[in-house]
Design brief:
Strand content: 15-25%
Distance between the termini: 102 Å
Shape: elongated
Radius of gyration: 28 Å
Largest sheet: 3 strands, antiparallel
Strand order of the largest sheet: 2-1-5
Helix content: 40-55%
Order of helices and strands: HHHEEHHEEE
Number of helices: 5
Length: 159
């Protein structure tokens, strides 16, 4: 009788192990589950200019990136002779992309048509300014370089 009970438990144990082993995920299922957990709207590390410290917090990295970018554009635009006889108070939206290979691209510049009519060379100057930026390290997501996109507001105000 004891032998029968032992054999019964041995058969149950062997068959339950088999069902556990058959529940392994395929690599495709594992990948799909992992992709669902990733927040694609955030990066682990922001793109970093040489003056930015990679050991800083993500918020400070973001501030450094945005401040460096804004200061560079502002300095470049201030060196240009932009003269207007009309009052302009406009905010341009510069849509930027940074490739995983650290290349900057302006994908779009939006603003009031009066601004672009008054300063016809402004768009070209913004493109030149972006192309003269120092080399930037790409953003990282889980330690892998990724493409990123940003919208940079630029206030144009004449007096």
């Amino acid at each position: 009788m004891k032998l029968g009970i032992f054999l019964f438990f041995l058969v149950v144990l062997a068959s339950s192990c088999d069902s556990v082993l058959n529940q392994k995920k395929t690599s495709q299922e594992f990948l799909e589950d992992e992709l669902k957990t990733i927040n694609w709207n955030e990066v682990g590390t922001y793109p970093l200019f040489p003056d930015c410290d990679e050991s800083e917090t993500k918020i400070n990295q973001q501030r450094c990136f945005e401040t460096t970018l804004h200061n560079h554009l502002k300095k470049y635009i201030q060196t240009q002779e932009l003269v207007s006889s009309v009052l302009i108070d406009d905010t341009l939206l510069i849509h930027l992309s940074i490739s995983k290979d650290s290349e900057f691209f302006i994908t779009e510049i939006t603003g009031d048509s009066l601004t672009f009519d008054t300063f016809p060379e402004l768009q070209n100057q913004l493109y030149e300014s972006i192309s003269s930026l120092p080399k930037v390290g790409p953003a990282l997501k889980r330690s892998v370089p990724v493409n990123t996109a940003f919208v940079l507001p630029l206030v144009i105000k004449t007096e």
